[in-house]
Specification:
The complex is a heterodimer. By secondary structure, chain A is of the alpha+beta class. Chain A is about 30% helix and about 25% strand. In chain A, α4 runs antiparallel to α7. By secondary structure, chain B is an alpha+beta fold. Among the domains of chain B are: about 70 residues, Ubiquitin-like (UB roll) (Roll), CATH 3.10.20; about 140 residues, Aldehyde oxidase/xanthine dehydrogenase, molybdopterin binding domain (Aldehyde Oxidoreductase, domain 4). Helix content of chain B is about 30%, strand content about 20%. Chain B has 26 helices and 33 strands. A seven-stranded mixed β-sheet of chain B has the order 10-12-8-19-16-17-18, with helices on both faces. A six-stranded mixed β-sheet of chain B has the order 6-7-33-32-31-23, with helices on both faces. The longest helix of chain B is centred in the last third of the chain and has 28 residues. The chains are: A alpha+beta, B alpha+beta. At the A-B interface, α2, β3, α5 and α9 of A face β4, α10 and α26 of B. The complex binds flavin-adenine dinucleotide and FE2/S2 (inorganic) cluster. Flavin-adenine dinucleotide sits at the interface of chains A and B.
Chain lengths: ~250, ~950
């Protein structure tokens, strides 16, 4: 059942943060709103950040920065976007969703099966979070491990290291299906940065040697043992594509 | 609160609540083209342009739209006629039910605005967020490209059938040389292989535009929910959270006390009347094991209570306030366990009627034998046996079940409902509501897909009870999750085939042992399983056959009718079994089948033992037409069958973990239930020489109204546009059993033809009088006029005016009905090409080709659409769709996404061929086409995987882990 009782569209970040941090009213941010309006996230009141958040893409020093309100389709269409991010954003959802859903919402939602979040991990993404007291830059992997870093805060930007060759491999029921397991990789000095979906409660950065020790949650699309097997096979493929030894 | 946005060019301000979606507000304001598909937004039927970009209005708050620009199809519609994009969709044959067509047209508009020269991949991506259950996406995708060409000002050629030379000469053997050189045909052209036996026609056999094209392409109000009723209230169901429980008590006081609640109904206040919910002819097949509300629940999703309230939000809140105390009972989900003798008894109530053995959960036992199976098996050179398991899937029409009921000014109950069987619903709902049939009117407007799941009296009793209880119009719409868990599904089955074969490759004995799972209610339990037996055992000739079937009650969601109706299950098992036998005997898989499949003149002997109309059947039917040989060769050519024998193709050198394969399955279906299915039609002339055709037949998007109009037009020498079709309203149209059993073209078509023949006679009589011609037989109707032998003519307008106003006045009109004595089988060859990733088990379907002999396709465009769309539903069945229950019996994936149906941007290549035969018993030579496309895809994929990997997989669907497990052990 729908539970949204109030809608706010503040004009600036300060006001948004104040609304978000009221002690008496459970409030969540909405960006594209695709998950919140679908009732997939329970909300008391919502703070729509469309009037204040940044929807621009900028690039400097081999880094690309996405304002939190950048729509996934705009990320895909931008010439500055590294290929792996465009490819995985394309897989985030169909056309109808990509024109609405945002970079900030996808990172904040951090779906366990989000290939874009995995690709952001591979690209060493840093998440800029505004809080009432300060603005902080948090590496995406840390944010995924400790979601409380986002409590009461608003993502304002996501910045990635754009360089490095990348590759991906995945298994799903059909070509556009949410992957059961997907592996993405990027060449970094001294090796590879490898990330997986479908093997934990959020996309994971992982060393190849640690794959055997994974203990993924299973569901009807893939048992834990099968997911572990996929993780090994797909990681190997990604590394081979990147010219690594397998 | 208020939200202000520019809607179709005009700034509008609307009242909205913070939680309300943009779709809710747009519909409330009368923009009915924005349609409900799923509360979580996946179907895209509510897509609009948001600042020029396609977005689902279902997953956007109305408040978010404040300050933006919204466009719906109402903004694109010209005052009359069609926008070029709409024209392209209609010409391409992309419009079936049309429920999601407005969304697709907006998608095309947004794409073309940003990219006037889109590729096929661009078009597929543009449609990726709009799920379609009907077309297989081929026609919508190419409609987008056609629209782009039209808007660029390019010349586009009309969509005409591509006529293809037959490869099998009449009575000869196939030209395999020609069969190895592929054709290169335009994607939208229906592929037709003409038969010299088929006479020339003017309207029949032509790709006529659909008669409902305008209202569908323009998103005009057309569906159940597209009306405004003063004072309408909203119903919401309370469903069981338990798979099996007794209701100890229901306390509805808090729900009733909630302001805005008008009624709360449950077993305590609704009369207990037994019924079977399957929409079937009188008397409905037993068991009668349901009541509107029971004191026991038998699956997660079973009815407990219903609330009607001023708003849907109040109704939802009230449902949450109903306090039910359950005594939870042990449950059983597996069909074999359920009938083992040690399972909980699902129907222990004393008043249930007509189950075979309720104490052992056996709803039906069906047996049929031809010859002597045991003796035949004992005599065979070789014997084979294999067991298969097929799973549970849901039809998922994009428009879920919805019904609105009210009392009209005569205080008769009107139910406007999304049904395939309006006349059955009227008769069946009457006793539950304690009303005589005469006090009930059922109206079927346009339907957003049915596929069998609406061959059911599913929610009409509920809105009826509520309208009578409250005196208010009442609306009940199932949301997507409710549609999954509480409507109807395909029967899961365990099937064992045992066959005896002689060394010459001839079948001598075949047994099909089936245990089917109907869930807790036996709706369609008897007839679906009969069709299974019929299809499993009459596709191939065999002197000794045995069908042995038990249908089990379990605590899973309820099974019922789903396009194919038992045949997809049977043919999966049969066609896998036949493939394996051929392999073990070292025979060519096609040649082994060809020796055994039924041919013209062969008896369909089990048909006399099985089937609803069997009692009526006084003779053994024989096959009167078959294009099977031609279907096979055309399909072989299209799919590139010779690659099956090429090791370099089977195992591509550059991708070591990939194996390729090609698979085949034969399909055979029926056309209507002979001796039982009846259709009626009424036809009358208007002042201008046009005609009203009133039919009880139920067009679900299939194009039935169009092909019926074509048949009338053919007889009367007019164009399809001269026939105005009004369908399915129990007060207005003649009786028809409804849309099921592949009967509309064959049975209702014959009724239309009979009525048209009689109107033809009356017109000729009048024209003879006007032209002063003595011999009626000399008058010919063509081009909208009646011609005397000497070339003089009167137009049908003159005929109409003369007969209605001038002389010896008479309304030229006729009513006719028809019951089919036969059910001539359509035949088809289904081919599949796959790639298997042997390290992960992922199967990718590259190509599906189906060649169908449906007799004479009345409209090649809609016929091709039926095959394309049916094949893609069948692809879902074989490849990715499955309802998954947890150990408590609750469905874990009652949402699109987790329940995976194919989208436009991930489709394999699909191709449909129409192989003509002249079926003399059918109208203009037609047989049925609607269901056969469901039959062969799963076994063809299975056999292609076998070809690719040598592994035989006997349970569906072919999802990666299942295939991977088989590869490990195989
Ligand atoms: C129909 C449908 C299908 C989907 N399919 C898939 C799929 O297959 N795979 C997959 O991975 N995902 C899928 N998703 C999820 C999809 O990726 C997300 O809906 C989308 O990325 C979220 O973006 P949004 O801007 O709409 O987020 P919103 O709905 O606006 O927000 C999502 C969450 O993030 C929070 N949030 C948003 N922006 C910020 C911010 N700037 N700062 C802090 N918190 C914020 C919100 O409070 C909320 O909790 C699907 C969603 C829908 C509706
Ligand atoms: S219009 Fe495609 S599913 Fe109905």
């Amino acid at each position: 059942m729908q539970t949204i009782h109030g809608y706010h569209r503040p004009a600036d970040l300060e006001e948004a943060l104040a609304l978000l941090n009221r002690s008496d009213t459970p409030t969540v941010v909405i960006a594209g709103g695709t998950r919140v309006a679908a009732g997939l996230i329970q909300a008391g009141e919502v703070v729509d950040i469309q009037a204040l958040a940044d929807a621009s893409i900028s690039s400097a020093d081999a880094h690309v920065s996405y304002g939190s309100l950048v729509r996934l389709q705009d990320l895909i269409d931008s010439e500055d976007t590294p290929a792996l991010l465009a490819e995985t954003a394309m897989r985030e959802g169909p056309n109808t969703l990509r024109h609405t859903a945002t970079v900030g919402g996808t990172v904040a939602g951090a779906d366990a099966e989000s290939e874009l979040v995995a690709a952001l991990l591979a690209h060493e993404a840093t998440v800029t979070i505004a809080r009432p007291d300060a603005q902080v830059d948090v590496p995406l992997d840390e944010l995924l491990d400790d979601r409380s870093l986002l409590d009461g805060g608003i993502i304002t930007a996501v910045t990635v290291d754009a360089g490095g060759e990348t590759a991906s491999a995945r298994t799903g029921r059909t070509p556009a299906d949410t992957s059961i397991v997907a592996a993405v990789g990027r060449v970094v000095p001294g090796g590879f940065r490898l990330a997986l979906t479908g093997v934990g409660h959020h996309p994971l950065l992982i060393e190849q040697d640690d794959i055997e020790r994974l203990d993924p949650p299973g569901d009807f699309r893939g048992s834990p043992a099968y997911r572990r097997e996929l993780a090994a096979v797909l990681s190997k493929r990604v590394i081979a594509m990147l010219g690594g030894a397998v | 609160m208020k939200t202000t946005f520019t809607l179709n060019g005009t700034e509008r301000t609307y009242e909205c609540a913070p939680h309300e979606s943009l779709r809710t507000v747009l519909r409330r304001e009368g923009f009915f083209s924005v349609r409900f598909g799923a509360e979580t937004g996946e179907t895209g039927s509510a897509a609009v342009l948001f600042d020029g970009r396609l977005a689902s209005a279902e997953v956007m708050l109305a408040a978010q739209a404040d300050g933006h620009t919204i466009e719906t199809i109402e903004g694109l519609n010209p005052p009359r006629g069609l926008h070029p994009i709409q024209q392209a969709f209609v010409d391409a044959g992309a419009v079936q039910s049309g429920y999601s067509i407005p969304a697709m047209i907006l998608a095309a508009k947004a794409l073309i605005a940003s990219n006037p020269n889109p590729t096929e991949a661009d078009a597929r991506d543009a449609l990726s967020g709009i799920l379609d259950r009907e077309t297989g996406y081929l026609r919508p995708v190419h409609a987008v490209l056609r629209a782009a060409a039209m808007l660029r000002g390019d010349e586009v050629s009309p969509v005409e059938p591509a006529l293809i030379e037959p490869l099998v000469p009449l009575g000869g053997s196939p030209d395999m040389g020609a069969a190895n050189s592929p054709l290169n045909l335009p994607p939208l052209a229906p592929r037709v292989i003409p038969s010299p036996e088929v006479p020339e026609t003017n309207v029949v056999g032509k790709p006529e535009r659909k008669v409902d094209a305008i209202k569908l392409a323009k998103g005009h109000p057309a569906f159940v929910d597209d009306i405004e009723m003063r004072g309408m209230i909203y119903a919401k169901m309370l469903y069981s959270p338990h798979a099996h429980a007794r209701i100890v008590s229901i306390d509805d006081s808090a729900a009733r006390a909630l302001p805005g609640v008008h009624a709360v109904l449950h077993h305590g206040n609704v009369a207990r009347v037994r019924y079977a919910s399957g929409g079937q002819s009188y008397p409905n097949p037993q068991p009668y094991d349901q009541v509107s509300f029971d004191n026991k629940v038998r699956y997660v999703g079973d009815r407990v209570a219903v609330v009607a309230a001023e708003t849907i939000e109040i109704a939802e809140e009230a449902v949450g306030l109903i306090n039910v105390e359950y005594d939870v009972l042990p449950a059983v989900f597996d069909e074999n366990e359920a009938i083992s003798g040690n399972a909980p008894v699902i129907h222990d109530e004393p008043d249930m009627e007509g189950a075979h053995d309720a104490a052992n959960n056996i709803v039906q036992h069906i047996g049929a034998e031809v010859g002597d199976f045991e003796a035949g098996l004992a005599s065979a050179d070789r014997t084979f046996e294999r067991t298969f398991r097929v799973h549970q899937v849901q039809p998922t029409p994009i428009e879920p079940h919805i019904a609105i009921a009210w009392l009209d000014s005569d205080e008769r109950l009107v139910i406007r409902t999304s049904t395939q069987v309006p006349f059955h619903v009227r008769r069946m709902v009457a006793p539950l509501l304690d009303l005589p049939v005469r006090d009930i009117r059922i109206v079927k407007p346009r339907i957003g897909g049915g596929f069998g799941v609406k061959q059911e009296m599913l929610i009409e009793d509920i809105v009826g009870h509520l309208a009578l209880a409250t005196g208010r119009p009442v609306r009940l719409e199932l949301n997507r999750e409710e549609e999954f868990i509480s409507s109807r599904t395909r029967h899961p089955q365990t099937i064992t085939f045992t066959s005896g074969v002689n060394n010459d490759g001839m079948l001598v004995a075949q047994r099909m042992r089936t245990v089917a799972n109907t869930g807790p209610y036996g709706t369609h339990a008897l007839t679906v399983q009969m069709v299974s037996g019929l299809r499993g055992l009459s596709t191939y000739n065999c002197p000794n056959k045995l069908f042995d079937c038990d249908v089990a009650y379990t605590n899973t969601p309820v099974a019922g009718a789903y396009r194919g109706y038992g045949a997809p299950q049977a043919l999966f098992a049969l066609e896998a079994h036949m493939e394996d036998i051929a392999a073990e005997m070292g025979m060519d898989a096609l040649e082994f089948r060809r020796r055994n499949w039924t041919k013209v003149g062969d008896p369909l002997d089990v048909a006399a033992e099985l089937g609803e109309g069997a009692a009526e059947m006084k003779f053994i039917p024989v096959v009167t037409s078959s294009g099977m040989d031609e279907c096979v060769v055309q399909g072989q050519r299209a799919v590139g069958w010779q690659r099956r024998y090429d090791p370099a193709w089977l195992q591509p050198a550059d991708r070591p973990h990939i194996r390729r394969g090609l698979g085949f399955a034969m399909c055979m279906h029926g056309s209507a239930i002979s001796g039982l299915d009846m259709g009626g039609a009424s036809l009358k002339i208007n002042d201008d020489g046009s005609f009203n055709l009133l039919i009880g037949a139920t067009d679900l998007g299939t194009g039935a109204d169009t092909i019926l109009a074509q048949m009338a037009a053919e007889v009367l020498g007019v164009s399809t546009a001269d026939i105005i079709v009004y369908a399915a309203d129990t007060d207005m149209t003649p009786f028809d059993v409804g849309a099921y059993a592949s009967s509309t073209t064959y049975v209702s078509g014959m009724a239309v033809k009979k009525a048209a023949d009689e109107v033809h006679r009356q017109i000729v009589t009048r024209a003879a009088l006007m032209l002063d011609v003595e011999t009626l037989g000399e008058i010919e109707l063509k081009d909208g006029a009646a011609f005397a032998p000497d070339g003089r003519s009167v137009t049908l307008e003159e005929v109409a005016l003369h007969s209605l106003h001038q002389d010896d006045q008479h309304q030229i009109m006729a009513t006719a009905s028809y019951v089919a004595p036969d059910s001539p089988p359509p035949y088809a060859a289904q081919f599949a090409e796959v790639e298997v990733d042997i390290e992960t088990g992922q199967v990718t379907i590259e190509n599906l080709v189906m060649a169908v002999d449906c007799g004479v396709p009345i409209n090649p465009l809609t016929s091709a659409g039926q095959i394309e769309g049916g094949m893609v539903q069948a692809l879902g069945y074989g490849h990715c769709e499955e309802m998954v229950l947890d150990e408590s019996g609750a469905m874990v994936n009652a949402r699109f996404g987790p329940y995976k149906i194919y989208r436009a941007d991930e489709m394999p290549k699909i191709e449909a061929y129409l192989v003509q035969t002249m079926e003399k018993s059918g109208p203009f030579g037609a047989k049925a086409i609607a269901e056969i496309p469901k039959d062969g895809v799963a076994p063809a994929i299975r056999n292609a995987i076998f070809n690719a990997t040598g592994v035989q997989i006997d349970n569906l669907p072919f999802t990666p882990e299942r295939v991977w497990n088989a590869l490990q052990t195989g």
